Amino acid sequence: MGGVRLSDVVARCGSPTYVYDLDAIVREARELDAAFGPQRHLVCYAVKANSAAPIVRALARIGFGADVVSGPELLVARGCGIEADSIVFSGVAKQDAEIDLAIGAGERGIEAISVESVEEIGRIDARARALGRMARVSIRINPGLEEEAIDTHSHITTGHDEAKFGVPKADLGSALQSVTKARHVDLVGISSHIGSQLTDTASYVESALSLFALAAEIKKSHRLSFVDAGGGFGVDYGQGCPARPADFVRLACNAMATFGLGDLALYVEPGRALVAAHGVLLARVIQRKVSGARRWLMIDAGMNDLIRPALYQAHHRIVPIEELEGERARWRVVGPVCESSDDFGEHELPASEALQLCAVLDAGAYGYTMASRYNGRALPAEVFLSEGAIVAHTTRAEWRDWVDDRLKT
Ligand code: LLP
Hints:
Elements: H1 6-13, E1 17-21, H2 22-34, E2 41-46, H3 53-61, E3 65-68, H4 71-79, E4 87-89, H5 96-104, E5 112-115, H6 118-131, E6 135-142, E7 167-168, H7 172-181, E8 185-191, H8 202-218, E9 226-228, H9 245-257, E10 265-268, H10 272-275, E11 279-291, E12 294-299, H11 308-312, E13 318-320, E14 328-334, E15 343-350, E16 357-360, E17 381-386, E18 389-393, H12 399-407
Parallel strand pairs: 1-17, 2-3, 2-10, 3-4, 4-5, 5-6, 6-7, 6-8, 8-9, 9-10, 12-14
Antiparallel strand pairs: 1-11, 11-12, 11-16, 13-16, 14-15, 17-18
Helix pairs in contact: 2-3, 5-6, 6-7, 8-9
């Protein structure tokens, strides 16, 4: 991977370990950026997908902004060199301390706090007044699409009436009134994000069209500077993904042109599409169990390291990290955690005991960031590759750290 032997990575850092190819992430990012053509734009990388500093720094260096959902994510983005005026901040329950951080960042606060309810506007106004600053906000619109029309897992759809996210279109009028009344709030944009891992562009385009139509209206009474069509660009986990990340961008640019919004910038908030394919989770085979026709392969990575299969029934391909000749078998690959959902599904892998090390593919997004220490397990190490070498790595936490933590109260 990236010119480095993964067995050397395991020898140096152990397992389970996440490995990321920084150069491939930058290539992916540049390709997405190029899809905007002449459209003025900002790609706000959704830090929640992977908040590792070498990745965020690499994206900062090529001019990307950040989409953050918490104070800590905001501080990581700033610490990695992303300017305050390239950061947008969404979240349905932002704490006062987080709002203060956003308003207080840089010369004039972050680019925009995405407000997710009419009620939040008053709170932001009060915080800005207390800090003696103006808060720049965008209204996150919930376009109220049919839930079934958003082609992804129900846990990660956000743009429908049953979701807690965004201001319903019906409440946009009162949101605009509140913003107009709020003396310390500047409305600078409107935004939307309907869900993640969209494998088809249809619902994204539907939401973008509805967002742009609203922007054209709001523009008559407010000085907007951007529209933010959100993230959600799907990737191919091995089951196919007809839409490429650049397709979402091209379609959004085309749609924008038809609404006469040429003076506004287009923002997008992709996370997964930039990093998923360029990270793997390395694991070691711990135990085999063959019982009748069932062949279990127990590995040292579990749902605490990568929760996507357990939480969203996601299937990640698993491959040996070295070429192994000989017969193959269907293995049910599972982790060590005491839950039946700690299950990576069925995989065609070498039958013999020569299979010792494997890689869980497409684990660069929502892997480490969702990892936990459940069952007293250590958080995995992370390794960063560039130009054929390991350029940074962390070490795995010690067992003892968790034991000490549990014993300290
Ligand atoms: N913007 C907002 C407001 C979001 O809530 C999200 C993701 C994104 C952008 C980035 O979405 P992306 O481009 O990465 O699809 N843990 C789940 C995904 C949760 C996504 C949450 N919000 C998974 O592993 O599939």
